[in-house]
Input
Amino acid sequence: MAFFGWDKSVPQPTKIDREAFVVLIDRPSGLVHEIVVSLTQNKTTSWKKVQGVQPTLHVGEMLEAEHVLLNDELVIAECRKLGITDMKQVFIDPWGVGYHESIKGKRLMQALVYMRTSADDNQYAHPLDFNPLYDVNEKKVVDIIVAKRRNSKFERPTIPRANHHFLPEHIGTENLRKDLKPIQITQPEGVSFTIRGQQLDWQKWNMHLSFNYREGLVINNVSYKDMDGTLRPLFYRVSLAEMVVPYANPYKPYNHKMAFDVGEYGLGNLTNSLELGCDCVGSIYYMDAVLSDMKGEPWVIPKAICIHEEDTGLLFKHTDYRTGKAHSARSRRLVISHIVTAANYDYGLYYYFYQDGTFQYEVKATGELNTQVLAVDEDAAPYGTIVAPQIDAQHHQHLFSMRIDPMIDGRNNSVAETDVLPSVHPVGHPDNIVGNAFGPVSKIFSNTDEAQTDASPQTHRSWKVINESKIHPYAKQPVGFKVIAPNSPPLLAKPGSIAYERARFAAKTLWVTQYHPDQLFPGGFYCYQSEPSDNLGLPQFTRETKNVRNEDIVLWLTFGLTHIPRVEDFPIMPVEMCGFQLKPANFFLGNPGIDLPSSDKKSTKSAYAPADAKSCCGNNSL
Output
């Protein structure tokens, strides 16, 4: 086998039977069917009934629920108690209900209720103080939970009516900034990527793009062409496989707010249709997404995926102070993204590919804060922040689980954990005379028990996916890619809590498992209304100790945000970013971006100096 490249000794398939896995829920009985259809043979190959599970909610079910709830007499009566007589002012966000003993056997939603004082007003500025419990299959309200006031002389709060607009037409043109000059991003010769069906080539990257109702955008079969022309495999499949948003308020009805936005609602189902010049800027290529509606009919989201290039500053630069020569290379990245709206929150989900072989994933969280109403004499502390009079924005976390299926120079890989530590030798020791010595200390995970680990900022902990059968000729180490995860807060819900037990995948920063084709979701395939005792997903995958060294493996990486809301997050939240990187580490024979040509200076000019100001790009004198 050659040092780099594919293992050509592995037999290649000559024919692949394409299959579709169908989950069908019968209404109103709630019986779930799992069906496998051969698309190649045009026939059903498997059909079984599944008891005691709830599939992902469909957008159609949520829209249907809002319509039924707004016309329900119990809901109308509660609104009247709060002084609301016009139900056209009332809006309802159907949420997953988490878990409770009383909901067994039913497909339920909890409904978060708000009002608007005008058509475009922020509904989260007017939260109501009760949550209906709704039976999805029977289409009826089964209970209404009214929040009890804490340390208040009032039994029910007044509902704040002040507008909190953020759309420009309501702010008024006279109040908008007048000192912004246009910025134009142009590519006069077109883009540098090519697309053939679902295949994408950019610079030295090659990959396949796919999209599904649950994970949304998925990147498959990622490879990179080395400087000698060898196409080297890197990742078989990368996707955002789950996320959990646990809220901190411990009182009813808010203590069951723990959204699993991937498994409970589906990122694909929640994906926006993007707009040119707003969501993506520059020369844009769009892809549509094809999903299914509640009846199984095709449902198209136009312009669901945005593909474009961005300038990201310097890739590298050096000035030789002796000769006065400087050389700079500009960094460009390929961006493949989609944006989802999960009720109040919006998430921009970005896959970045760089010219030096780096892969990055980033989440940009924005949208509107989820809120609850307070009586005028109540305080939000310690579980929330008052962002406007009587409006409590609850503290919460956003914890994302990325499923990374690597194939670093081949199918069998291992994972090494590295901590950077001071020398074990005391100051004055021959190997640490002045006490400055430090270095990396690594261990390779052998099995799934070892490969459940947490971030450690104190030791600058990182992980490396390596191929132990490929030793780098210079470094004398296995070739690999380094996992850098700076945004790794711990799950703050306590062990034994409903949120913790249902989201055990978020209790560790990194898990490593053997590849199994059915293990795609760290919170379990049927996570909606799952019982904490089910231990679905990763706890189930790792129940039996298995070898993960020099195996076909999968990494599950948790990253995210702990959000203590600010007043500045209201009425609409500026983006807050989190994510991770995978960087080549002793994989190439040098900097893979060294062959970049000097930047094109035609589109760049000095803002105030003469247009012929000297450039620092290329081998130009200073």
User: Anything to note?
Assistant: The radius of gyration is 27 Å. Confidence is low (pLDDT under 50) at residues 1-6. Residues 57 and 265 are 5 Å apart (CA to CA). The chain is about 5% helix and 40% strand.
